[in-house]
Amino acid sequence: MLFGGTANSAPVEIFLGGERIAVHMRGSGNGRHTTVPEHMPSSHRRYGEWTPAKIREEASRIGPMLSLLVEKVIEAKPHPEQGYRSCLGIIGLEKRFGAQRLEAAALRALEIQARNYPSVKSILEKGLDQVPVPQSPEQEPIIHSNIRGSSYYN
What we know:
The protein has 154 residues and is mostly helical. It is built from seven helices and three strands, in the order E-E-E-H-H-H-H-H-H-H. It has helices at residues 42-45, 52-62, 64-75, 84-97, 99-111, 117-125, 150-153; strands at residues 2-3, 12-16, 19-24. Strands 1-2-3 form a three-stranded antiparallel beta sheet, with no helix packed on it. A hairpin with a 2-residue loop joins strand 2 and strand 3. It is extended, with a radius of gyration of 24 Å.
């Protein structure tokens, strides 16, 4: 694949095997990307109708923890669209596991900072959504004759 044009307003030409397969005008804005839906893989095109607002609305229908998890997934990406697939996959787990379990799995995922589809799916498959996250016990201060403590230095 060869990209033609210069770093100005000239169109971008894309060649494959010596044949021009696409021509695009450069997008305006430094560092911004543009996407022509026809050039996206079909697996990505199906997400084109989704917006962050629509995804958030669908997640909030299930519960506040899922809504927060989806928000965290979207916020973590430089472009919201990059989180759609993960969010929609997570939301789709409702069909298999139900809204109540998905909400519990979202809470667990947030607690352990596992904010992606494979983690949430694993939580559900292993039944971890029904088990509380173990809390680490408060650590007792280490008492040892060789430890001087803060009073030594004052």
